[in-house]
């Protein structure tokens, strides 16, 4: 009969045993993680069926806990070998970055102290960190003293927040209607939002959640570089006005998910000013380019936008989840403010305590701003400039190499770090290439559709990827294509 294992303390605390066990658990976990990394592969290749079969053997909540030692052994065998390795030079499928080492350390701090960002008395220093980080982010993107921001779970929540602000601002200023108190106006079904036909699907999701419906989202055609066609935008707005509809917002995409294409905010701002519309920049992808003096002009002047979505778990290389919504006019956050006596008492705020719940869709939130603070302090301007420039230059190199290769065709030349291309064979062949790489070569790349054909995609967010490695991957894909066609 096996000797029962000693129960773990519940938490970290001031006692020596609590501290020792905390260190032991974390040390053993780190050792298990590092031991599981045996090569540069992005994924060891297990099938969907194999993983499902493995996990079907476990009861979610066993009658008796198995203890830490047995649990760690099970994690070593069952879980760690099958995790995707986002730091691998063979991983480039999505806008899903590797995490910088110092930001992983910040995650440990965040998880250990488990602050909640809704009220100051739940997160004193964490609140002040977020306030300070937001102020400097507003400065970074060219906003003035009346600006503000709050951290979010990512681009979808930031976009939902911005569109909520835009809807309420329009209804208040143009229709003399207070949505916050009275609900949607009678003419709500006439409200229209404009965004490019290759923008993020969170536009439709937001419209649905806000009671406007998918039909409220007008998808504007794009030009040859997959950027919103501003002349088409003008025409659609005018046509909708003639039909009695109410154009209230344009969302410019600053780095589309597939192509990294960047809408031209200066031209769109002119349209919004002429029409009395709110302009939001979904810069979830492209916002990282602001840290590169060499390439930041590609973004345009984001300070022209009424709000900006920034994601730090993309080009900034921070752990999921970590995003922010920045607004030029802090008054827009009033749409989320509601006082609760137990949480954000007015007398506390009058005495200088900051309760961030009044700016957020969420109540409980993690102290994600610490990740930004630590990474920025650690890397500095020069470090981040090198990260961003390397990724952009890798994409430029890859695009040129594909254009020069007789077996490949390129969708568009990249503005950011996404490269969309295809082998000249059939769409079915390109689909098979991606799955062959995933399950047999430990290489994970993306797939999308461009002009009704299947294309492959490299999303280059890892600055350790070399041009030599990219050349090797092109050769591997060409070899696989030839083998699969035989």
From TrEMBL:
Alphabetized SUPFAM superfamilies for the sequence: PLP-dependent transferases
Pfam families: Pyridoxal_deC (PF00282)
Keywords annotated in UniProt: Decarboxylase, Lyase, Pyridoxal phosphate
Signal peptide (residue range): none
GO biological process: amino acid metabolic process; carboxylic acid metabolic process
GO cellular component: cytoplasm
Residue runs in coiled coils: none
Superkingdom of origin organism: Bacteria
Cofactor(s) the protein requires to work: pyridoxal 5'-phosphate
N6-(pyridoxal phosphate)lysine modified-residue sites: 314
GO molecular function: carboxy-lyase activity; pyridoxal phosphate binding
InterPro entries xrefs: Aromatic_deC, PyrdxlP-dep_de-COase, PyrdxlP-dep_Trfase, PyrdxlP-dep_Trfase_major, PyrdxlP-dep_Trfase_small, Pyridoxal-P_BS
Family note: Belongs to the group II decarboxylase family.
Protein name: Diaminobutyrate decarboxylase
Organism this protein belongs to: Sphaerochaeta halotolerans
């Amino acid at each position: 009969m096996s000797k029962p294992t000693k129960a773990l303390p519940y938490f970290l605390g001031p006692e020596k045993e609590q501290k020792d066990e905390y260190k032991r658990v974390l040390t053993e976990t780190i050792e298990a993680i590092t031991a599981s990394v045996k090569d540069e592969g992005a994924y060891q290749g297990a099938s969907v069926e194999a993983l499902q079969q493995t996990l079907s053997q476990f009861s979610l909540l066993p009658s008796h806990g198995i203890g830490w030692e047995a649990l760690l052994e099970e994690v070593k065998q069952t879980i760690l070998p099958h995790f995707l390795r986002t730091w691998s030079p063979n991983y480039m499928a999505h806008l899903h970055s590797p995490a910088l080492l110092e930001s992983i350390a910040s995650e440990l701090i965040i998880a250990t102290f488990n602050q909640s960002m809704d009220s100051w008395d739940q997160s004193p220093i964490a609140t002040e960190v977020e306030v300070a980080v937001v102020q400097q982010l507003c400065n970074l993107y060219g906003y003035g003293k009346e600006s503000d921001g709050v951290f979010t779970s990512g681009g979808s929540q930031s976009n939902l927040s911005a569109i909520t602000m835009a809807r309420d601002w329009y209804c208040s200023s143009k229709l003399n209607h207070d949505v916050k108190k009275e609900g949607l106006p009678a003419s709500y079904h006439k409200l229209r939002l404009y965004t490019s036909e290759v923008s993020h699907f969170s536009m439709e999701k937001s419209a649905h959640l806000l009671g406007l419906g998918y039909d409220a989202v007008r998808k504007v055609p794009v030009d040859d570089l997959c950027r919103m066609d501003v002349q088409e935008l003008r025409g659609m707005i005018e046509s909708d006005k003639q039909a009695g509809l109410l154009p209230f917002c344009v969302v410019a995409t600053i780095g589309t998910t597939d192509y990294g294409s960047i809408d031209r905010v200066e031209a769109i701002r002119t349209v919004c000013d002429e029409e009395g519309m709110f302009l939001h920049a979904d810069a979830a992808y492209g916002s990282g380019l602001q840290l590169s003096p060499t390439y930041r002009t590609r973004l345009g002047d984001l300070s022209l936008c009424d709000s900006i979505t920034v994601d730090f778990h993309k080009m900034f290389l921070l752990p999921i989840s970590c995003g922010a919504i920045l607004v030029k006019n802090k008054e827009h956050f009033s749409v989320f403010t509601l006082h609760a006596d137990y949480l954000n008492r007015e007398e506390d705020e009058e005495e200088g305590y900051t309760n961030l719940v009044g700016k957020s869709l969420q109540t409980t939130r993690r102290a994600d701003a610490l990740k930004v603070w630590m990474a920025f302090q650690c890397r500095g301007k020069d470090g981040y400039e090198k990260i961003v420039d390397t990724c952009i230059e890798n994409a430029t190199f890859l695009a040129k190499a594909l254009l020069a290769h007789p077996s490949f065709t390129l969708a568009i030349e990249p503005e950011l770090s996404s490269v969309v291309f295809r082998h000249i064979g059939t769409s079915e062949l390109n689909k098979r290439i991606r799955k062959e790489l995933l399950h047999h070569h430990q290489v994970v790349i993306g797939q999308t559709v461009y002009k009704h054909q299947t294309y492959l995609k490299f999303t280059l967010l890892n600055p350790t990827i070399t041009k030599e490695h990219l050349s090797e991957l092109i050769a591997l894909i060409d070899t696989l294509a030839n083998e699969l066609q035989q």
